[in-house]
Amino acid sequence: MAAPGAGRLRRAASALLLQSPRLPARELSAPARLYHKKVVDHYENPRNVGSLDKTSKNVGTGLVGAPACGDVMKLQIQVDEKGKIVDARFKTFGCGSAIASSSLATEWVKGKTVEEALTIKNTDIAKELCLPPVKLHCSRKEGMRNSFNASTEVY
């Protein structure tokens, strides 16, 4: 049985995942030299990979799969009693840009309130990583939100 407030944390983790740009599977064959050094850095040295204690009452989990891309991402956030995100972890199966975006997102959300973290847009992440516009077509929130909500659960 989920702890009280788990639904809110799950929705917050899910919404944060929607901010991460995703790439189509066909982009996997692109040579690494085509990626900006920030993408390569986060891909080769991802930050905050792993999982948080899924039984903890202050951990929310979001899971999303993008059928068009083949990417699957899980994001977990741990929130303190004041509503501040004190830890974030991710696991991503996908291309270099998806992994780099997830890694950067976990860095950015730490120390923010859930409300502040929800203001981070996929375009902010893409701009920081210098992703070209062609890499953003799978990050449209409208198409992702329905499949995301259907596949999200508290672990």
Structure description:
- This protein is an alpha+beta fold and 155 residues long.
- The chain has a domain at 46-153: Alpha-Beta Complex (Sufe protein. Chain: A), CATH 3.90.1010.
- The chain is built from six helices and three strands; from the N terminus they run ααβββαααα.
- The chain has helices spanning 6-17, 37-44, 96-109, 114-117, 122-129, 141-151; strands spanning 59-66, 71-79, 85-93.
- Strands 1-2-3 form a three-stranded antiparallel β-sheet.
- Helix 2 (37-44) crosses helix 3.
- The model is unreliable at 23-32 and 137-155 (pLDDT under 50).
- Belongs to the NifU family.
- InterPro entries: ISCU (IPR011339), NIF_FeS_clus_asmbl_NifU_N (IPR002871).
- Keywords: Iron, Metal-binding, Transit peptide.
Structural class: alpha+beta
Number of helical stretches of at least 4 residues: 6
CATH class of the domain at 46-153: Alpha Beta
Stretches where pLDDT is under 50 for at least 5 consecutive residues are: 23-32, 137-155
The CATH topology of the domain at 46-153: Sufe protein. Chain: A
Helical content class: 25-40%
Give the neighbour order of strands across the main sheet: 1-2-3
Strand fraction equals: 15-25%
Query: How is the quaternary structure best described?
Result: single chain
DSSP strand count: 3
What would CATH call the architecture of the domain at 46-153? Alpha-Beta Complex
